[in-house]
Amino acid sequence: MSSKKKNLSRRDFLITAGAAGAGSILFPTGSNASELASNRETPQQTRVPTRPFGNTGVDVSILSFGGAMDLVSKQLLLSQALKWGVTYWDTAASYTRSEEGIGKYFRKNPADRKKVFLVTKSNERDSFGMSAALDNALQKLNTSYVDLYLVHMLGNIEDLFPYKPTIRWIEEMKKAGKIRFFGFSTHKNMEECMLGAAKLGWIDCIMMSYNYRLMHTDRMKRAVEACVNAGIGLTAMKTQAEGQVKTNTEAELELAGRFVQKGFTGAQAALKAVWENPHIATICSQMPNLTILSANVAAAMDKTKLARLNKRLLEQHARETCSGYCAGCTWICEAEVNGRVPIGDVMRYLMYSRSYGGDDLAKALYSEIPLDVRKRISRLNYTKAEHKCPQRMEIGQLMREAAVELG
Predict the structure, then answer these.
(1) 96 with 164, same domain?
(2) Cut 0.90: pTM above it
(3) Is the residue at 4 inside a domain?
(4) Long-range Cβ contacts of 110-117 (<8 Å, 24+ apart)
(5) Tell me, what's the pLDDT at 8?
(6) In DSSP terms, which residues pair with 207 in a beta bridge?
(7) Which residue has the higher pLDDT, 245 or 101?
(8) Domain assignment of residue 317, yes or no
(9) Which of 314, 300, 309 is nearest to 30 (CA)?
(10) Contact call for residues 299 and 29 (beta carbons, < 8 A)
(11) Of 114, 132, 295, 325, which one has the greatest count of Cβ atoms within 10 A?
């Protein structure tokens, strides 16, 4: 393959597949996205499929609406998502004007509240903080209850200690009708959090980073199995597996060509790889416009399976580019710097900026790191952390780049 052809293939691949970021822009295989977008009254048989959500007794749409954006001005988008069967809506207190946007929608469409499986999240850990956050969320959401309340960004299952007050709070909120189910979201140390949750007996649902880079590891397989056996409903996020470093490999180019021939992109393949695991109830995807929403809906409804060779190519691509992707196992690297800087968080913010097009969000999150900690980020020696990193990441270089780009 000539250098010129490689460059063109890489460019076309990024335009077609990668530049989706959190939205996961996909070209549908079984339906045409523009036709789907024009068909506002989608018939029942073309609605997004559903799956059981652990032992909750509830079936949820396999595609969920990620609300990490201002939804006040996106009322038609919410309405269309619901019409197409995207009935799982995710939001959080930390998402700017997201809860307010959903609340505005329910105020105008009160009958639709019962059609939505509503999820919100809070960074609070103790019962007093969670109570205040939940009441505030209910007011913004214009509802008397949420279907699922998640403790946001858990990195250690022990952050839910002491357990007894937390269990008592959950029982009280369920009895009061303010929440139906309880769980947490996790971006780092996912497997350890999941394994710990499976032993507790009172975690209903977990939202975790899960994608073709992570799903084949023994640690993640054991974590998923433990949660399934415990009846915990699982929501996958970060399913595009985009990392901190842009890549350009032979496997990636081969993937692009094969997927285009099959009528779908690398981004769609990444979603399909997750959906092929029946234990993953739903994928949470941010869909900020109708184009992305319709494309993702079409992909969710499409029944085309990934060929065995395509699955192997995805795995090969994951191996070849692992040094550019943080797998979230921060218990390894952060221990080597004595926890003096949040390596996992910084890597995630860098990913938001470089791969998700979320530069403003990344800078805002980075600014929340205490000033004295930020000053250390570019000064620390990360040699030991790099030696222990299973992904072989150049942690020191990336941390210094983050300090410049996000600081």
Answers:
(1) yes
(2) no
(3) no
(4) 112/82, 113/143, 115/82, 115/87, 116/82, 116/87, 116/88, 116/89, 116/147, 117/53, 117/58, 117/60, 117/61, 117/87, 117/88, 117/89, 117/147, 117/148
(5) 31
(6) 185, 235
(7) 101
(8) no
(9) 300
(10) yes
(11) 295
Instruction: Provide the residue range defining the domain that includes 384.
Output: 326-406
349 lies in the same domain as 297: no
Number of domains in the chain: 2
Omega of the bond leading into 162 within 30 degrees of 0 (cis): yes
Helices (H) and strands (E) in the chain, counts: 18, 10
Same domain? For 211 and 145 the reply is yes
* Domain final residue, candidates 282, 311, 340: 311
Q: What's 48's DSSP letter?
A: P
What letter represents residue 117's amino acid?
Answer: F
Distance separating alpha carbons of residues 297 and 26, to the nearest angstrom? 9
- As a whole number of angstroms, the distance between CA 374 and CA 385 comes to 18
d(CA 159, CA 151): 10
Is 235:206 a contact under the CB 8 Å cutoff?
Answer: yes
Position with higher pLDDT, 39 vs 116 = 116
Surface-to-core class of residue 113, CB atoms within 10 Å of its CB (0-12 exposed, 13-18 middle, 19+ buried): middle
Domain CATH for 40: 3.20.20.100
What's the pLDDT score for residue 248?
Answer: 64
Same-domain status, 341 and 398: yes
Q: Which of 280, 311, 342 is the last residue of a domain?
A: 311
